[in-house]
Amino acid sequence: MADMNRERHRTRETAFYLFTQQSLPACKPVLTPGWVITIFLFMGLIFIPVGLITLRASHSVVEIVDRYDTECVPEAFRIDKISYIQDDSIPKNCSRFMKVHKYMKAPIYIYYQLDNYYQNHRRYVKSRSDKQLLHGQKYHDTSSCQPVELNNGQPIVPCGLIAWSLFNDSFTFIRERAELKVNRKNIAWKSDRDHKFGKNVHPFNFQNGTLIGGGKLNPKVPLSDQEDLIVWMRTSALPSFRKLYGRIKEDLDADDVIVVNLMNNYNTYSFGGKKKLVLSTSSWLGGKNDFLGHACVIIGSSSLILAIVFTLLHLKYRRPYGDTSYLPWSRKSLSG
Amino acid sequence: MPKGRIRAKLRKSHLYTFCIYPGDVGKEGWSLGGPGFSRIVYCNEPQVHSQIPLKYRSNDISTTKYNFITFLPKALYEQFHRVANLYFLGCAIASLTPLSPFSAMSMIAPLTFVVGLSMAKEALEDWRRFMQDMEVNGRKVKVHTGEGAFGKKAWQDVQVGDVVRVEKDQFFPADLLLLSSNFEDGICYVETMNLDGETNLKAKRALEVTLDFDEDEDFKIFKGMIKCEDPNPSLYTFVGNFEYDGQVYALEPSQILLRDSKLRNTEFVYGIVIFTGHDSKVMQNSTNSPSKRSKIERKMDCIIYVLFSVLLVISLISSFGFAVEIKYSMPEWWFMRPQNPDNYYNPGKPVLSGLSHMVTALMLYGYLIPISLYVSIEVVKVLQASFINQDIQMYDEESGNTAQARTSNLNEELGQVDTILSDKTGTLTCNQMDFLTCSIAGTAYGSGSSDVELAAAQQMANDLEDKIELDTVVSSNSEKDHKSSIKGFNFEDTRLTNGNWLKEPKVERIMLFFRILAVCHTAIPELNKETGSYTYEAESPDEGAFLVAAREFGFEFFQRTQSSVFVREKYTASGKPVDREYKILNVLEFTSKRKRMTVIVRDEEGLILLMCKGADSIIFDRLSNDGRLYQQDTTRHLNGYGEAGLRTLALAYRKLEESEYSAWNTEFQKAKTSIGDDRDIQLEKAAEMMERDLFLIGATAVEDKLQKGVPKCIDKLAQAGLKLWVLTGDKMETAINIGYACSLLRQGMKQICIMANDADTKEEVKSDILKQINNGSQIIKEEKDPHAAFALIIDGKTLVYALEDDMKDHFLELGVRCASVICCRVSPKQKALVTRLVKQGTGKTILGIGDGANDVGMIQEADIGVGISGVEGMQAVMASDFSIAQFRFLERLLVVHGHWCYKRIAKMICYFFYKNIAFGLTLFYFEAFTGFSGQSVYDDWYMLLFNVVLTSLPVIALGVLEQDVSSQVCLEFPAIYQQGPRNLFFDWYRILAWMGNGLLASLIIFFLNIIIFYDQAFRADGQTSDMTALGTTMFTCIICSLNIQIALTTSHFTWIQHATIWGSIVAWYLFLSIYGALSPNISGNAYQILVEALAPAPIYWTTTLLVTMACSLPYMVLIAYQRCFKPLDHHILREIKYFRKDVEDQCMWTRERSKARQKTMIGFTARVDAKVRQVQRKGHKKQ
């Protein structure tokens, strides 16, 4: 045992000694043409198949997009859309027809898409209180929710601009007179429902009095079940974004026509934002995403081309490796 | 103390003709009291000097930069002098306001860390200086305390006017006026090594009036007054009067004992303190140690400025965009409640909002300016320095000293040195003379052939096969140096040793030769009680070497009395040792002007002999016709010795008739006692009369022993393309000899000597020097031979003019064109001035190396100062940036450590900028998509960790451990060092290329990510990405790309690099899962991000892979192309090593190594090559 200990001690010492003398065993790779060609070839061989597979997945996705914000304003109000949307007395219901051009397999995801909507603006993003969402009125320090913190001296739950500007258009889908079942559960992250929005926190003093913005919330339902709100509170990264509205549990056949009855409540007219409704299937990859596939194929094929170019160059201008004639003191051009 | 008494009896001045006499010229004294000459010292009345206006500076010295009170403000000022630090300070302050895009802690903590670390380093360095000062100030010296009693006092308490008693081998505590010594005539010997690097002892002589004050009790009544010049840095001048007993006596430099010089060969002296502490001449010579920064770091500042401009531009764009958005779009964004504005988002005041956004933007994009760069560089440099400190191959076993990087600021500068300015004594040479060979009566004795000739012969023989290894020859020679066991004697020839000379044919001449060695000198023998042999205290080490040689040959000089020299002859015809007495009749001393020394002695038979030794040219001029018997042979030998760098002296003698001598002697005595200006001239004349018709008997060659490995080291440094200037306080002859010994000079090299003539006016002298310089330049310009090499030799007197403003450029131009430059007899100040001239004139990196206090100026002035931590005092080391134990370690310090450190730091900084640009710009692009609101796409924690954990360790590992080629290859191919001075790795192209790479990476990372995650669901479950998911994916891509990039950059992978690079990527995922697992109160939107949202999504992994590869593709193409078709030196060398070609093809390896050396002009190899060329040319002629 003692011997072993000493042995171990010595090796540790040697390793440290080698370190201080900067002579630790090291791998000193040399980039030879062989390696270069192999690496590029390898990259090409990985990315082209990956690209093709993702393209295939992307192509399998069927997507229908319908912009409805302009069409859903009655002819009379087309000139002044803002007054239309701000006038509560005007009915906001509207019907749209969507034609399925290809068989869509359930689940079919329903998204609403907003364009030119700066959900990522700093003033907007900061204006929330995660603690209040979890603990409700027990949590008092909601200064971060400015400017939607208090109403009539009473705290607002949920506070902040994000919650206050909740999207409130609603959609129902009818195929051949029969209403399609839309599942509006499980559209938010499970962790959000379980851990970030309180089970005992109910909306309070929300969209009340003078402070009226977007959608209202049912004060009876705890926040953890208000999935629309939870989805909305996940602020988007870009000013153009889609958010999940629900899932249709039935397959749609090609040439089906779907009637969408929607309530066009949400104001995007003041800032020229667009509203779209999207029906989409999904693949293992997610939504329709040709770009990823294309990018992979491009990178892969450029690697392949590089591999070929380097092979040709190498065959033409072969440089013997470790050839000393390349050393500067052997090169004639170098003087001084 | 019997020895002291014997010595005390000697009145040496009696014997020596050219001894400094008290100037009777100046009895009337100098006219003093004007400006610049106002100092008054009341001798033995220090209490008078405790009050103004006579209160002068105290004797304690301080070389520290700070003290307890000034440290904080001064050090803080130094720190925030750096622009980047100032910017971060601004950011830290702004981060306390709501404008900050991040939490305040994340701005303040790194800054505190950086500044704290740097300040701690400063404090430590200053503490060391302080301790050194304490040690010096605390030294003790005996001071007159009144009533004839002397007591010990610390140096710092010594006051002007004090009488001090300094004993043998002590340093003088201040500048003193010499009053008396243990010798009756008030002579004392002083070693001024620390002042001017000269090892010769210098004689100082007291005024005759004060000679009697040579006992402690005498000072009860001593009173006097000194009026003299104000403190000034001139070491060789002193103007002052000494008033005593109503008489005024003029004082001269020969009565002044300077601080930091040492009393030698004298038991004690008494002196009066004139200049104390910082007033003393040596302290006046010291310049403030400047804080040095490396060129790379200065350039880095430029890059920082560039980045600042970029930062300002994008911040301006950002705040302009913000203001526009606020003014025109914000009122329409009802969801942001524009009707409730605050100062920051106020559609009514877009300018105000824009301005305050500017602050936010400056902080947000602060990632462009890598604050962690400073921390990382500090850390890397400290580690690099510790490698230098621990390098076992720079460990000197004899002294037990390792190399020391005393500041870590300049590691990379070591890799960019262009010119080395070196001291000679103690740096190149050991200050030890060895008797090596001699030529007696036309026969050469001793192992005469020099190393160079030996190597050249072998090289010739093997020229075709290239088999020989020069290094082995050189190293075997350096080993030989070690064999000599007797200090001062390195003679190997059995014909002369052990009494064998008795069997030689010209035994009479040989005996005479040895007798001259044993008698013709001014040394004093000292019996070493332990060994029973005699050692000699001589004025110059050469003389000591002669006496040791004579002793070894059997002629032991063992006693000197007032009038005689006693020599014990061991080998005689009878076989018994005989003591012989030589009565010294006259000594005609050695001076640099006379270049010879003569003694006239009467031996026991009554024969009068004149023995003379001196420079060969001088002796040859004074030979009689008969005396030229051996001149031809001796000249041949002398040339050989000179070429080998040995110091040579010719020995001659003359028999004198009694009548002839006495006639001359009366003449001589008359001259000696004459009073007036022409005394010296008369003496000279008299000496000249006697020193003629000499008979040449032989010549000696003494080796000024080089330090171990110096020629080889100089050779390697020359191969590495470095220029070497030697700045020495020594005589020109000595300097030239050393030039030969170090192969800085060689036969066939054209020496351009610039010497001031003795013209009357300054203008004439100057114009003459200018003419000489221009001539020199002209010669070089007209030279056609590509192998021609030139050497410039200049002395201190000439340098005074050459360094003046109107001339220095010409001088520098000439110096730069010469292969080697030797400046002799230069003062410490001049060393510093030359250094400054070369540094500023060429703009290249200058390394100054020296060992003594006289080199301090040079060491401080040079870009890098290296001190030799040898036998001399510690001043040079204290002032230096690096200290090494021996000159030869300089090779490894520069060629290995310097080269590595340069490339490491260069790579590291480039990578840093790349990394911060790649990251910082993604923040900016994202702004464009958020209405320039200052929102960051990344979580605060990611940003905080980015610099601290996730990307810092690999780059530190790169900076510490990267090696382009192994140390062995560095040493074998010193030419690779040129990559540093030519700055191939930190030029603007490279820096901009790296920045461009960063820009490209940021574009690829950002746009690929946002397009992929634009609006579509990123999972099979249909969820779309939010800001956190996108930010996290983007950040993953950044971490992977940056770490892959550094893996591509690194060329030397030990397990540490692997661990840090791959560990960083793993650490990111680890962090993400841990952070996601924490309570959502902490992690916010990042809660469960990896586990729940991203990891199950194939698109996340595909994107990471795609973006990482896309980022590294351009760089890979570049390096693949470069390695395949445009390789650099180190790539080829790596390949050779990689394919083990050096093992398989030894021949090629050796050939390449010798090829690599061809360009050099100086050094051992160049010399051998020149010799080979010369011999070949001769061969051609014969054919």
Structure write-up:
The complex is a heterodimer of chains A (about 325) and B (about 1200). With about 325 residues, chain A is an alpha+beta fold. Chain A is about 30% helix and about 15% strand. Chain A has 9 helices and 11 strands. Chain A has helices at about 1-20, 35-60, 80-85, 120-125, 130-135, 160-165, 190-195, 225-235, 290-315; strands at about 65, 95-100, 110-115, 150, 155, 170-175, 180, 180-185, 240-250, 255-265, 275-280. In chain A, a hairpin with a 2-residue loop joins β4 and β5. Chain A is extended and about 90 Å long. Chain B has about 1200 residues and is an alpha+beta fold. Helices cover about 45% and strands about 15% of the residues of chain B. In chain B, strands 14-33-32-31-15-27-30-29-28 form a 9-stranded mixed β-sheet, with helices on both faces. A 9-stranded antiparallel β-sheet of chain B has the order 17-16-26-25-24-23-22-21-20, sandwiched between helices. In chain B, β28 (about 750-755), α21 (about 760-780) and β29 (about 790-795) form a beta-alpha-beta unit. Mean pLDDT of chain B is about 80; it is low at about 1-10, about 20-30 and about 465-485. Chains A and B meet through α2, β3, α4, α5 and α7 of A and α10, α31, α32, α36 and α37 of B.
Main pleated sheet of chain A: 5 strands, antiparallel
Reading side by side through the largest sheet of chain A, how are the strands ordered? 1-11-3-9-8
Question: Averaged pLDDT of chain A, please?
Answer: 85
Cα distance spanning the termini of chain B: 73 Å
**Beta-strand percent range of chain A:** 15-25%
Number of helices of chain A: 9
Task: Give the structural class of chain B.
Answer: alpha+beta
Helical stretch tally of chain B: 40
| Helix content class of chain B | 40-55%
Helical percent range of chain A?
Answer: 25-40%
Which term fits the overall shape of chain A? extended
Q: List unreliable stretches of 5+ residues of chain A.
A: 331-336
